[in-house]
Amino acid sequence: MPVQIRRPDRRECERCGRVERWNEAADAWRVDGGGGDVFCIHEWDINGAFLPFEGTED
Questions:
Q1: Cys-Cys crosslink for 43: which of 11, 14, 21, 33, Cβ 3.0 to 4.6 Å?
Q2: Mean pLDDT, the chain, as a whole number?
Q3: Which domain of life is it from (predicted)?
Q4: How far is residue 36's CA from residue 29's CA, in Å, rounded to a whole number?
Q5: Is residue 9 classed exposed, middle or buried when 0-12, 13-18 and 19+ CB atoms within 10 A define those classes?
Q6: How far apart are CA 3 and CA 55, in angstroms?
Q7: Domain coordinates of the chain in residue numbers?
Q8: What pLDDT, in 10s, does the model give residues 33-55?
Q9: What's the whole-model pTM score?
Q10: Quick one: pLDDT at residue 34?
Q11: Percentage of the chain modeled with pLDDT above 70
């Protein structure tokens, strides 16, 4: 099985709580619910715990 690279489909700012979801149709992140702080330099919760690889090469 070839290795597949995936991206997160949801992210949340650790500073202001803004939540965004990946929109396939727009090929961009879109605000989900409240907008958070528009002046925040967002610190997204994507870190070393997220594994972008699925499967393994044989």
A1: 14
A2: 82
A3: Archaea
A4: 14
A5: exposed
A6: 5
A7: 1-48
A8: 777 888 999 988 777 677 677 66
A9: 0.68
A10: 74
A11: 86
Across the beta sheet with 28-31, the strand order is 10-12, 19-23, 28-31
Query: How far apart are alpha carbons 40 and 54 in whole angstroms?
Result: 33
Query: Scanning the structure block, which residue is given the tokens 């002046």?
Result: 39
Residues paired with residue 23 on neighbouring β-strands, in sequence order? 28
Question: Tokens 């715990």 sit at which residue?
Answer: 49
The first and second tokens of residue 32, run together, are 């989900």
The pLDDT, as a whole number, for residue 35 is 79
Q: What's the chain look like in SS3?
A: CCCEECCCCEEEECCCCCEEEEECCCCEEEECCCCCCCCCCCCECCCCCCCCEECCCC
